[in-house]
Amino acid sequence: MIEVKNLCFSYGSGSVLDNINFCAEPGSLIAVLGPNGVGKTTLFRCLLGFLKPSSGSVLVNGKDVNLFSKKDLAKEIAYIPQSYNPVFNHTVLDCVLMGLTSSLSVFEQPGPEHEKKALQCLQMLDIEKLAHRGSMKISGGERQLMLIARALVQDAKVLIMDEPTSSLDYGNSFNVMDRISELRDRGYTILFSSHNPDQGLRWADKVLALKDGRVLAYGPAKESLSGTVLKELYGIDVSVNNVSTGNGDYTVCIPLGGKTAQNV
Q: β-strands 77-80, 158-161: how paired?
């Protein structure tokens, strides 16, 4: 569990986050939405202990994040960056094994048990067939799943993902988000940032909408992402509608430009 209480952060005299409060329950998937420069990445850096809040606190299972050693915090929270552009053509398996750095001693090398564990993480994401392929020879979507596998091998139950689909096409974005939701179903607590409100509506249990460093809305996705909230976030009229298909009912956003939105 992650609890954020009255979190404030400033770079010098410039306030970036102001009185942020929310709780990420075990086994939940939370989408963090907001326009560019709103403080999403800064919030994640505070959750990861990279930045110390000006005031307020971040608690991981009841303990302040700044009281963990880096090694112990890596057992609680894993971070997945937006993208990864490898300089060397390490195999996918070797890249996943790099996630064990914090749990190995200085001169310890990964052994057969570590490789077995890494392969299990790849299998969990249905990309075990890529294990011995070079990381420079796979698609962007496959590379993003590789980064998630690298985080899973840490055994942390909280995953923080900074725009995990930002550089992916429509099909790969859907595939990655589908895998992320499966991890939620396995009991992982996941926070991901996104510029696509439809991802929040489709996959998230809750949405944290940030505007000017403050919480504009927080709660169940379909309740929090109204047309009014989306217009305030992104500055355009948006219609939020329910769509029925043969596979189920979904809620989607339709940008209307300068027209008046009829919001559901």
A: parallel
